[in-house]
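Amino Acid Chain and Its Fold in Token Form
===========================================
Purpose: to set a sequence beside its fold so the mapping can be learned.
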Amino acid sequence: MIEGSSGSVKIKNLNTNKLDIKGSSGNVSLDYLEINGDINVSIKSGNLLFNLEDKDSNIHWLLQSGSGRRSVAIPLENRQQNNRKTQGQTGDGSFNVQLQTTSGNITIK
């Protein structure tokens, strides 16, 4: 688990079975080749950028933002969206990726 109160977090080419990040303020940037475990990122204020090389990874996506935008540049199956939440899946959805901001944008590329 990574916890922080202010400042940015940038992770490139991470390969881990499970990742938990919790922060108060600051941007979070994650750069993955492929997903092979659950990921949970929760920040209060700041933007969250998630770059994924393997667009067909087996993921169930849950993106929640209180007062920010959610932008997903990969096709999601079973996509459901409302004003605060976007969810869907790629592949068979066997891993959970939960990304949450209170005030900040979430971008998936």
